[in-house]
Task: inverse folding
């Protein structure tokens, strides 16, 4: 067995230094067996002003009952609160013969039981909350007695769980964060990973964890603008990590992988457009048909005549009007942060179906504008006479949106996708008003301009996009 990324001081020869944990207690605490309920809470989950707390309940009026406020740099999420509650319950009972912990978090229980050995072998590569998970593993290894985890159903009338929930909410509302001891995690992290268990992607994540990489100025600048646009739309200031995470989110199949890669490059200002050509080919810096001094991504997606964006956004807005909701103002920053944009009703309730529809329409429309611009620049040799016609663009847009509708219905197949399958009711809420009255799997014919329908002929609706973008 060979381990890599080890710390020789903490784990000489890849073997855990047990002296690191200190001497174990020789006697058990009074009572021997400890019964405890734990819970986590987070208000404003994922935002910069989120309030996270954890609660530990031993019994009515027990002086050991604990409320903890969790603060940065730890992630402010509900799962963080759940893990911290279990961590502190173990730390408070180091000499107990047995600690019986009841939690309503399936995530926390599976983390410490079913997944812990695999994650430890892989050096916690790709694991969320690695600092907390490693500290928990260290505390469990150092514990003198047995630790038992039990799943209880949350908000089901279980008195202990409800009491822990009250304590967790009280912790989240404390004015200042509490100090949390994560030192045991250093010894676990020092073990590194078994080289024969790692994939190439996991090994790369471990390399990047040990490598200090500064933030690029252009990336920071674009991220600030994107966060401001998202906050203006949602009244929530999301941290940069939440914006990046939204592009990796594949749940419910809302954002396509191709758009996510496109937006990721956009946040890094890494597309070969605009200032990229300043010192390479100044002629490519400008957009001659539009007489724009810089053909940057914002110009391509919201201003350029050659990308077809005007027609594309008009089609998207016309389709969105069928929902009866206001169409947002389109900007580059909103497009890049679309993964965190939500649609709410008059009472402030998030409409999950309409949120999915808006994200699908904006992401697919923006990516189509980018593809048409690249095809005109490269495939059509920047010839203004060969620019995409309105009829071509309309057929392309309808074809793409129709395809997303078909994919949504395909994702409802429980035989193929199991628990990850979409619910048919959610798909209906997403596309309500845009499909035919007698066929939920087909778009209405009046969504696009009259006479331009998918399958009516012509190369525009039959052509398969070239190369890796097909």
Result:
């Amino acid at each position: 067995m060979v381990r890599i990324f080890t710390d020789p001081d903490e784990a000489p020869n890849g073997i855990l230094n047990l002296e690191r944990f200190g001497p174990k207690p020789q006697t058990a605490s009074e009572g021997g067996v400890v019964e405890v309920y734990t819970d986590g809470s987070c208000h404003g989950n994922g935002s910069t002003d989120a309030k996270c707390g954890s609660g530990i309940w031993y019994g009515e009026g027990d002086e050991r009952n604990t409320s903890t406020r969790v603060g940065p740099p730890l992630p402010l999420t509900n799962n963080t609160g759940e893990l911290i509650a279990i961590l502190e319950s173990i730390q408070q009972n180091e000499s107990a013969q047995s600690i019986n912990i009841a939690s309503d978090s399936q995530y926390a229980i599976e983390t410490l039981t079913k997944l812990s050995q695999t994650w430890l072998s892989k050096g916690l590569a790709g694991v969320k909350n690695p600092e907390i998970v490693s500290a928990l593993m260290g505390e469990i290894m150092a514990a003198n007695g047995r630790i038992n985890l039990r799943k209880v159903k949350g908000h089901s009338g279980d008195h202990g769980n409800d009491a822990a929930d009250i304590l967790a909410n009280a912790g989240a509302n404390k004015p200042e964060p509490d100090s949390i001891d994560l030192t045991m995690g250093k010894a676990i992290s020092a073990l590194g990973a078994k080289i024969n268990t790692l994939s190439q992607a996991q090994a790369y994540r471990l390399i990047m964890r040990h490598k200090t990489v500064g933030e690029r100025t252009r990336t920071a600048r674009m991220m600030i603008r994107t966060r401001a646009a998202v906050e203006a739309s949602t009244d929530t200031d999301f941290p940069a990590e939440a914006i990046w995470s939204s592009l990796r989110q594949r749940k419910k199949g809302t954002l396509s992988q191709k758009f996510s890669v496109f937006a990721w490059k956009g946040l890094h200002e890494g597309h070969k457009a605009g200032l990229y050509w300043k010192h390479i080919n100044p002629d490519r810096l400008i957009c001659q048909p539009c007489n724009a001094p810089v053909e940057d991504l914002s110009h391509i997606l919201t201003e350029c005549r050659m990308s077809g964006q005007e027609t594309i956004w008009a089609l998207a807005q016309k389709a969105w009007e069928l929902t009866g909701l206001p169409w947002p103002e389109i900007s580059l920053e909103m497009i890049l942060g679309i993964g965190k944009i939500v649609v709410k009703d008059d009472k402030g309730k998030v409409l999950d179906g309409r949120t999915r529809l808006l994200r699908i329409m904006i992401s697919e429309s923006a990516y189509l504008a980018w593809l048409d611009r690249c095809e005109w620049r490269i495939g059509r040799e920047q010839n203004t006479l060969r620019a995409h016609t309105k009829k071509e663009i309309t057929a392309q847009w309808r074809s793409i949106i129709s395809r997303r509708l078909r994919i949504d219905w395909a994702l409802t197949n429980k035989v193929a996708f199991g628990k990850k399958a979409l619910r048919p009711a959610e798909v209906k809420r997403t596309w309500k008003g845009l499909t035919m009255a007698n066929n939920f799997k087909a778009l209405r014919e009046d969504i696009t301009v009259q006479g331009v329908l998918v399958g009516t002929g012509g190369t525009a609706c039959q052509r398969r996009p070239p190369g890796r973008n097909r």
About this structure: Residues 220-469 form one domain. The first helix runs from residue 78 to 91. The CA atoms of residues 436 and 444 lie 5 Å apart.
